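Allow me, if you will, to draw on your knowledge of protein folds for a short while. The matter concerns a single protein, recorded as an amino acid sequence and a row of backbone structure tokens. Could you please explain, in whatever detail you think fit, how the structure tokens follow from the sequence? I remain grateful for any guidance, and I place the record below:

…
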Amino acid sequence: MSRETEKVMKQLLKYLDEHQDEIAGEDDMQRLVERFMDEHNSSLPPENVTRLPETADDYLALAADTGAKKKKLEYVKKALELEPDNLDAAVLHAELTAKHPDELLTALPALIEKGTGQMKAGGYFQENMGDFWSVLETRPYMRLRYFYMETLAWNNMMKKARAEGEELLKLCANDNLGVRYALMHIYAYLEEEQAALALHKQYGGYEETQMLLPLAVLYFKLGDFDRSLSYLRRLYKINPDTKRFLAAAAADELEEYADQADPHGYYPNSMSELLYEFMAYAYLFDPLDAFFEWSRRKLKK
């Protein structure tokens, strides 16, 4: 669900809450939903007309659409004026105003403490533990903690990042954010074999690029080259671009595939996913020249 869809859902929930006295059954609920959607669609401006921002979500959408840092910060401040407790806005404000990494590492735990208070006050830990992503009100909290996990990892604070990732999976066992992939790369970095295998098993043991490649790296780092090669072969079966990726990484020629990289997403089990993975978890892959050269030669055979 996109941020825009989330915004509409929040408006719908507010609308239903305001019309609770009209709901006596499912038919009434459906009628109200249809009425809301009709009113919402009729209120949308024509394509050539820009609607003025009214809500914090509107200003956050504007911030996301601009590349100018000064303008982005201006929109974020407007969002916080309207909703001082908006965690998405607070996180973006902290990111934009931090001049040094340590400032962000200080600001984010304070926001997590604030968000945890919000979650406790709303009873979400009691009622929605393990299923946080299914509740709109808890998603900003999940995004905040995911960003904190990433920030910790990028600052080489791996044990803290691991703990944050494990906590996120307790909050949302379905893992809609893909925390398991980040956590698998952290386990590979820390050379934690049992934790990595348990995580893979927990999510079905599926043959996925972002599970198999870090497992291959893990066993290479542990000196178990046979198992590392086994995971590489499994990876190649599901991702036919594996050989080209390994050869380019070994030769430091990945820039030749830059046109297939997309910072906003990727096509599963393709070169685009391998490139995304290489960039997203550079803390694991950057020091692995020996692994890429070895894996290129072994898989070529």
